Amino acid sequence: MSQKQISHGSKRHKIRNVLLLYYLLPLVVLLNASSIYFYFTAKESLDEELAERLKSIASFAAMQVKDYHLAALTTKNQNNKTYDLLKLKFEEIRSLNKMKRIYLFTKQSESLLDTRQDVVPGTIYERHQFYQSELESTQNGMPTASILFQSKDGQYFKTAFAPVMSSGEIIAYVGVDGNAGFFKNLNKLGSALTYFGLICISLVILSSILVSRKIVRPIENLVQSAEAMGAGNLTQPVKLSTDNEIGFLGNAMDEMRKKIVERDLELQMMLQGVAHEVRNPLGGIELFAGLLKEEISDPKALGHVARIHTEIQSLKLLVQEFLDFARKPSLEMNKVSLRAFFDDLKYTFLQDLEQKDLKAIFDIPEDLEALFDIYQMRRVFMNIVQNAIQASKNGGELLIKVVLKDKFLTISIKDFGQGVATDQLESIFNPFFTTKERGSGLGLAFARKIVQAHGGKIEVESEIGQGSTFYIVLPA
Length: 476
Hints:
The chain has helices at residues 15-63, 67-73, 81-97, 132-137, 182-230, 245-295, 299-326, 338-348, 350-355, 374-391, 422-425, 443-453, and strands at residues 3-4, 101-105, 111-114, 144-145, 149-150, 156-166, 169-179, 334-337, 359-363, 369-372, 397-405, 408-415, 457-463, 467-475. It has 476 residues and is α+β, with helices and mostly antiparallel strands. The chain folds into three domains: 17-184, PAS domain (Beta-Lactamase, 2-Layer Sandwich), CATH 3.30.450; 245-326, Helix Hairpins (Orthogonal Bundle), CATH 1.10.287; 334-475, Histidine kinase-like ATPase, C-terminal domain (Heat Shock Protein 90, 2-Layer Sandwich). Helix 1 (15-63) runs antiparallel to helix 5 and helix 6 (245-295) packs antiparallel against helix 7. The protein is rod-shaped. The two termini are 30 Å apart. The relative contact order is 0.08.
């Protein structure tokens, strides 16, 4: 897998989203847990309250049933006076306590009396087969209540049973059905809790956004300042109006920026001073070498003089590179046809390409233009193309491609040479780094400096034995 020079910023989780998650998640969990706990606690409490109420009513109704009532009711004469009086009592109890129904039945679940009009004496209560455990619980003479049931019409109800005692024995039962109307209130409560939770969540989201903005905006300003400094723009101060830790960090960054500017100025002055100090003696050496060449005729000595002259020219070129690198690139921006630009560049390297039998392949749209300094960008591409030619094997190819995407031009230059080792790839754009026997190591460093001055970036990916690809990204 190819190694890539660091270029694209890694994906960052936005602080606003993180804050929102940290605020919102616990609140949602807390609200849900509280709502569920409150709902079931209220349901259990109301259920128990209804059960106790039903048992009290059932016990009171059972106390109204006397032995002579049962004797009269077992005749199955619905029109006798005893039946009417007892039913009237049951109806009063039912109406007063707002119960659904009250009924009296035998141990065999046979109806003796029922406040519901459609139930006649002698009717067998089929559903009592589901209440066997509750009826058995009344053997100690105490009332009992069933669990909550849902009727066919969707209403919830609960039933309580109380034994009718005679001489210490159970001779009949009284049943009381009560509507669990609290379920409607519970549902309303659940809806209210839901709305309350949504309001709380909305308020938390709003407050999180407001708080995160106060935190994020200064941080975004810091990020922009850091990116500008990383791109070589050291003239823009870091301005933050906050007086907290972020403001302190901004001030520290601005102090760092000032020190970098001071160091760069000192470095530029030093490089220029060294270059001038070296250039002046070189001029004298070149002059005396020329005089020496005129005064001697020995071929061997003339060869030495020619070697001296060659080395002088190399040193002069090196000094010029030092001076150029020390200066801030001065740009003269022009609209440039990329196809014409690279056609002209191709002729510059035509001899070098022919010497290594290399084929240069261009994939550049005809009408594509870019805005840059022709002279400075020519230096960039001459350096990269020359390196690519030197790294390429004889008879190979050199691919130059231009792609326009999202208002950015990406110019790629690919060779199929030996590639660059991973440990060297990280240092390839550092000043004075070189893998060649001769060279200043300023070529790629200067190329990056020029590209950054254009508001672009330069990066490389390479793999040993597979070659390298340089990418120059420029604003379109």
